[in-house]
Amino acid sequence: MATAKANKKMASAAIDLPECPVCMETMLGPIFQCQSGHSLCIKCTTSLCPPICPLCRQPMTQMRNWQLEEMISKAKVPCPNKTFGCVYMMESNDVQDHLKECIFREMDCPLGLVFGRCSWHGKLKEMMDHFKERHPLNCNVNTDTDVELNNINVKEDDRYMYLISQGKLLFIITMKIDTLQNMVYWTIQHIGSKAVAHQHVYEIHVTSKQDTRRKIVFMEHCFNDALKADEVFRIGKCGIMPLNMFGHFIKDNKMSFRFFIKRIPSSCNKEKKSKGDTNAKPQNDNSGPKGFGQKGAGNKGPGPKGPGPKPQGPKKPFKQHTNN
Ligand SMILES: [Zn+2]
Ligand SMILES: [Zn+2]
Ligand SMILES: [Zn+2]
Ligand SMILES: [Zn+2]
User: CB within 5 A of ion ligand 2: which residues?
Assistant: First the structure.
C-alpha cells in the first residue's frame, strides 16, 4: 500500500500535478472545496456520503477551486502512449490532437485505409516490416533509383503508394491519376507529427520517357499523415501536372520519376523545437539525398507563430527545368 502511494506520488510529482489529499490520485477538475477550504478531487467528492470532508469533518460545499482547475488544465501531462515509449508532454487539452499523430499509437495499414484490402494494424515501428512482408512492391523504392511504373494509362483513375524510410522516419509517397480533374498528383507525407513533417521538403523529378530533355521538378513541404493525400491534392500543395502534359512523359505505357526528401536545417525550425517527437528526430542530415544540393536550405517551415519572414516555399506548384 505504502509503495503504491509512493509510486503515485512520484508519478504525480514527475508531471507536476497536484494530487487529491484523500485518494492521492492526480487531481482532475471539477474540484470542490469543504467549508474550511480543502480541495478534493471529483471522484472523492461525489463518493462522500454524507458530504463531509474526510480531512476536517466540515461539510463539503459547491465552491469550486477555479485556480487549481485552471492550473491543472494547463499542466503538462504525458502522452497516454508513454508506456510504449512516447516521451511527449503536453497540456491536457492537446492530448486528443497529439494522439492523432503520436508515432506510438496503434495505426492502420496506409494501403488498407486507401485500397481496403489490408486489415493490418500495429505500431509505426512495425509498419515497414509489414510492408516488406505483405506489400513488397509498395516499399522497395529509394532515392537512388527511378520509381518505374508500367501499364500507365491516363484514361483511367489510378493510385500508386510507396512507403519510404529515411533515417528513422517513415514517409509515404502517393501518385494519383485523376481523370475527373484531368490531373496527375504527387505528394510525400511524413507518418508522424506535423512538426517533424514541417521540417522536411521533398522533390519529385519527372523525366520524359520520350525525350530525356523534358523534365519537371516539383518541390514542396511535407504534410503529415493526419491529412489525407486527397486533401493535399485538393488544396494543391503538391506536385500537379495536367494529364495531357503527363502524356508526353509516358512511352509504351511506362513512366518513371525520382524523389528526394530533405530535412530543412534546424535553424529554420527553432520555433518548432518544443513540438516535435524528440525521440524520432534524426541527429543529422546524413540521410539526405544526394544531388539535392542546397535547394531546401532557403525554405522555412510554415509556422503559425513567430514574426520572422514568411515561408519562402515555392509559390507555384511546379517549375520547369530549362535545359534545352
Ligand atoms: Zn480524491
Ligand atoms: Zn476539510
Ligand atoms: Zn505520444
Ligand atoms: Zn497492409
Answer: 34, 36, 38, 53, 55-56, 58
